[in-house]
Amino acid sequence: MSLAPGASVALDDFFARELPEMSIRWQAATADNPRLLVLNDVLADALGLDPVWLRSADGLRFLLGNSVPDGATPVAQAYAGHQFGGFVPRLGDGRALLLGEFRTDDGLRDLALKGSGATPFSRGGDGLAAVGPMLREYVISEAMHALGIPTTRSLAVVATGGQVYRDTALPGAVLARVAASHLRVGSFQYAANHGDRDVLRRLADHAIARHHPAAADAPNRYVALFDSVVSVQAELIARWMLVGFVHGVMNTDNMTISGETIDYGPCAFMEDFDPVTVFSSIDYAGRYAYGNQPAIAAWNLARFAETLLPLIDDDADRAIKVATASLGAFGPQYERAWSAGMRAKLGLRPDVDDELFTALNRDLLDLLAQSPVDYTTFFRSLSAAVRGDTEPARGLFIDLAGIDAWLARWAPLATDADAMDRVNPLYIPRNHLVEEALAAATADDLAPLQRLLEAVSAPYDERPGLERFAQPAPPDFGDYQTFCGT
Q1: Residues lower than pLDDT 50 in the chain
Q2: Is the peptide bond before 372 cis (omega within 30 degrees of 0)?
């Protein structure tokens, strides 16, 4: 049920009350001339918010954190993190605030801001954000949601009317973000690094209650918590890989306990298939390349396990043995999730055995990389091949003999073209279209952004008039780089 225009908004301060050691009370910077750029009406309705009211002056103040509902306690959350492999003991929300939590039928949902001004965790930064990066997060996170991938959601982007200074002056904006929570591996690293076992235990119990309640009934609830996080992350990373998503900055402070994708900074979707694809301008060594994401996820989970050792067992050796065994489940769980997803993308019959699937998939990925071939276009074109037209797929390849031989092996094993179209997207946020939309929006033209959102919000449904949104980037688009936005 939506709130009536002007009605009060019910926000809880559950995290702030339960874990005061993990945050600092703070207020958002004031925006003197706000203007709504984009609002997620469907998400607003799901949260019990009236979109009409959110578009009002009072609603904009709420979305900027300048008008705080009774019962809410805005805080900047504390966390640590391994950034590109190096441990930083105090990171925290340097340009973000947790406003509070909504109570929904699906449990608590955080409402947080990004770009809301400097906090005690800003480390000399201005805590602000520009229009482009905030709209990027809106577009990519909503595309991920439409693809069925667990993710934080974007409620709104509001232009502040102020300027943000990076390489040049840019219009400023604040993103309102919704999440199951903002608990991260880095949250546990912060608590563990400060050596207070009581805080660490309360943080773990908070995570269990919010995200993995079945763990509370396990013989060892903290082992069960770790097992649950391993499982949701194995599933999440498999889904990233299946659609060609590259997160770009898989630091431990960007891995959630809930299993949601978070922090869309230098992210992008891979077009030409290449496991070493990197988009981030600062990932010089390719640590977070597309093909490295499963291994990095396992590495991050090992860091999470380290924080839980004092809770798992008082005997350090026994705790390490138990945690190591649990971490060993990540690889097999990831492989099962990825293999099931790839079988669906290929439309394989259930009776295709693992050996045949492995050979078929290995040879296909080799062919895709050698040509190279646009990953999304190829998989979408396979359903046409099942319907009898192989030309859309084979025409993508340089090695026609190679793809013809592969198609001949695959075709008798694939049966359901309609099911394939339900798992192989036609529309993703293609990089040239994202850049086009962000550049236009920065210049006050929101039409390209709205058109892009229209396409990616229903990624599997072919619709007339959206043909260019299914096309790869033109050859002159060049090497693509993304930036963190700070």
Answers
A1: 1-6
A2: yes
Apex CA 432: angle with CA 430 and CA 433, to 5°?
Answer: 65
Contact 3, 50 (CB under 8 A): yes
Contacts of 470 (CB under 8 A, 6+ apart): 377, 380, 426, 427, 462
The Cα–Cα gap between 292 and 251 comes to: 13
What sign does the dihedral 451-454-457-458 (CA atoms) show?
Answer: negative
pLDDT of residue 180: 97
Token look-up 């232009």 returns: 159
Sequence spans of domains, the chain: 14-179, 348-415
Cα 343 to Cα 366: distance, rounded to the nearest angstrom: 17
Contact between 445 and 437 (Cβ < 8 Å): no
pTM above 0.85, yes or no: yes
The pair of structure tokens assigned to 50 is 């009236």
> For residues 348 and 414, is the Cβ–Cβ distance under 8 A?
yes
Q: Are 112 and 418 in contact (CB under 8 A)?
A: no
Rounded distance between C-alpha atoms, residue 4 and residue 56, angstroms: 12
How confident is the model at residue 5, as a pLDDT? 42
> Which residue among the candidates 50, 110, 227, 253 is catalytic per the annotation?
253
Residue 8's pLDDT is: 67
CB-count exposure of residue 56 (10 Å: 0-12, 13-18, 19+): middle
- In a 13 Å sphere around the CA of 207, the CA atoms on its Cβ side amount to 27
pLDDT reported for residue 485:
62
Quick check: is 126 catalytic?
A: no
Residue pLDDT, tens place only, 405-414: 999 999 999 9
CA gap 365, 290 in Å, rounded: 14
pLDDT digits (tens, 9 = 90+) for 192-226: 999 899 999 999 999 999 999 999 999 999 999 99
